[in-house]
Design goal:
Order of helices and strands: HHHHHHHHHHHHHHHHHHHHHH
Mean pLDDT: 86
Number of helices: 22
Structural class: mainly alpha
Low-confidence stretches: 1-5, 490-537
Radius of gyration: 28 Å
Length: 537
Amino acid sequence: MNDTSNPDSDAERLHALGYRQELRRSLGILGNISMGFAVVSPVVALYAVSMVGTTVAGPTWVWALPLVLVGQCLVVNVYAELTSQWPLAGGPYQWGRRLLGPAFGWLGGWVWQFAVMFGNTTVAYLAAPWVYALFGAVPTPGGLVAVAVAILLVCMVVNAYGITILRWFVSLGIAAEAVASVLVGLVLLLFFREHGFPLFTETLGAEALSGGSKVAGFLAAVAVAGWAFIGFDACVSTAEETKDAGRQVPRAMWWALLSVGAVVILNAMAVALAHPHPEAVVAGQDVDPVTTAVVHAFGGWSDKPFVVVVLTGFLACAMASQGGAARGLFSLARDGVFPFSRHVRKVNGRKAPIGGLVASTLISGSALTLGLNATAIGSLISFGTAATYLPFFLVSLAALIARLRGTWVPSGHIRLGAKGTFLNVLAVAWTAFEVVNVCWPRTVLAPPDAPWYQVWAALLGTGVVLGTGLVYLAVRRPHDRLREAAGAGEAAGESADADADADADADADADADADERTHDSAAPPLPDGLEAAAERP
């Protein structure tokens, strides 16, 4: 078990898992929680999904949030057992290859990595309009892309200064989140309600977009709400920079997910009840219901301050998310199983994964070209959500199969036993459902008159990433490198065991010779009386 009183114990555990300590291990439990909280980000989550959720299901969409939160708690149960045993950056990749083999682990890590990087693209793009709002300017598609690129570059620079500087910026973002989410949400809910709680039983005609089906509209809301509760695995990304990671990272994931879940549900309800005309949101006439509710309640003076705190929350989310992406790339590249691994695995003097930061920024930035078509960014959001739930499913499935085979028995700090297997089954069922639900082509989630490829964006995007991963797997065969490394490790272990056995045999022979010499040179025994007298003091 990890000993927090010994600063070298984490490094020793990392060495036992096959790696040396290259990143700076300086985060405590609060620092790790802050990374997960910032990436999940209640401000980003609410702004990304509240308008769409209300449009497709009316005010009843808020019930999708607790449903998704419960489902994600099932995933955290699985992740907690895994990270307790293997507290490594690049969790899905590291766990998958240990549970079901190198090929499975590599492919899961590949999909997860691109989902995170394209998630960074989405966050940066969604943050850009707030920069324009801060200065009262009117955005253009090209201008939004340029600002989003600048945001990615700023985030890269902050990350390059190391985990300590990143933690400070993220903490500032969390403070902004506390103002923009908790405080404002409570004030809206307690003092500025325009409607009663029965509002949450009404759709206000939103089902018309789904052919009159309220069930179809709610399922679309569940797909949208899925975006609100991804990112808690950022706690895993910084596991190799967290003290006593096997114990603290599982706790941090729980704290991050549950705290963000509570805040998102609070604010979704508060905004709906404080909005003067929710039917306008359903009709698509108000594309920013959160700001409308805040300004209506507090007055026009609150517009700019609210923009500042929201923008700060977006920037903190982008920084933490980009840091997680860089550490995932570092985890793959140090094993030599990612393109240009020699460059991507580089760590700078501040012990930040600079190679991963540059690579993730380039990939996330390249995807911003979709933003030149203002309607295409919705495709990126759909793909990002689907591609994130797919690794959730793959990890949960790998854990369940390994459990049932008996090849994995959790041996970390967290061991749930039979209950863990039951929760694992539920996690597989939930993530499989959500992958299908998010990938399901819906015109209701695409812009009016959108081309077919935008309607099918989630399925197409996931298929492209999976397809390129399979091609790379077949051509470059990165899993062979992992098998060779594992074989070398086993051979080294067997050699060490043989040497140890030989040393033990030699020591035993030496001890036997010494005993024999001692026995031969010993004095003859004394008579009973004299022996007893000699033993008395």
